[in-house]
Structures are given as structure tokens and as C-alpha cells.
Design brief:
102 residues; mainly beta; Ubiquitin-like (UB roll); 4-stranded mixed β-sheet; 1 helix
Length: 102
């Protein structure tokens, strides 16, 4: 069982990464319930800070994230989800939220 250190808001940062290529897809947030749901269903479930609700990645868009592995960083304050991404990960229509250069 994964035991992350949640912040003062009860959240932990989550990085989603394509399991086979290593491509970094997105950053999102989970609370304990979102993590539990992700572990139980194998589908990435996040906490939306803007909407204040849970969202299963791809539930409305079809761009699902099937979780292959859940890793906790050495400090316990971040989670790495190794996923099989269907379609795009970013709400802008890009494969990765980290695709734009600055």
C-alpha cells in the first residue's frame, strides 16, 4: 500500500508518464480517495482543484490513462503513475502537457 505525504490541503502531486516510452504526459493532483480509486480501478483518477471534484482521466474525452504502476518518490511527497495513455493527455489537444517550449 502506498502511503504518500499529503500537503496541508490533503493533496499530493502526481506525474503521469507513458509506461513504455518514458514520455512525461501531465501533472495532476490526488487526495487519499483519488489514490484509492486509482488503485482499485486501474484508471487514473484525480482531484480537480478548480472544479473541486474527482475526475477519471478520459471519462468524457475518451483519452483514458490505464495505470501500469504506481511509484512513490523518496520523500513521499510525489507520485509517479506509469500509464498506458489512450490518445492525448493534455486538455489543449496535445499528446503531452509538457510539449510547448518556453
Amino acid at each position: 500500500m502506498i502511503e504518500p505525504r499529503f500537503d496541508a490541503n490533503g493533496l499530493v502531486a502526481v506525474v503521469a508518464q507513458q509506461w513504455d516510452t518514458g514520455e512525461v504526459l501531465m501533472l495532476a493532483w490526488m487526495d487519499a480517495e483519488a489514490l484509492r480509486r486509482t488503485q482499485e480501478t486501474g484508471r487514473a483518477t484525480y482531484w480537480s482543484r478548480s472544479r473541486q471534484e474527482y475526475w477519471v482521466k478520459g471519462e468524457t474525452s475518451g483519452n483514458a490513462q490505464h495505470v501500469r504502476e504506481i511509484r512513490l518518490d523518496c520523500d513521499g511527497d510525489a507520485i509517479l503513475l506509469l500509464v498506458d495513455q489512450e490518445g492525448v493527455a493534455c486538455h489543449t489537444g496535445r499528446r503531452s502537457c509538457f510539449g510547448a517550449e518556453q
